[in-house]
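Hey team,

Filing this mostly as a record. A colleague (T.K.) asked me to run one chain through the structure pipeline before their review meeting, and I want the input and output archived in the tracker in case anyone asks later how it was produced. No errors, nothing strange. Just documentation.

Input sequence:
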Amino acid sequence: ELAKEAAGRIRQAVEMGDVTQIKSIVEELKSRCDAAAPLGDKFVQMVEDFDFDGILKLTEQLAR
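Output structure:
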């Protein structure tokens, strides 16, 4: 449930192009779930690379 909520919030931030918000959501997810750390690190790398398509694809995996 936490992952689905985060995925939705990340998608909204991507649509707005808000990289700061994406990072904030990912950090919150990582702090609430240790298992999310590796995935969170992928998100952070994609944000730094401005890979919005990759971020959207990763949110699809997260929402499953």
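Quick notes for T.K.: The chain is about 80% helix and 0% strand. The longest helix spans residues 2-16.
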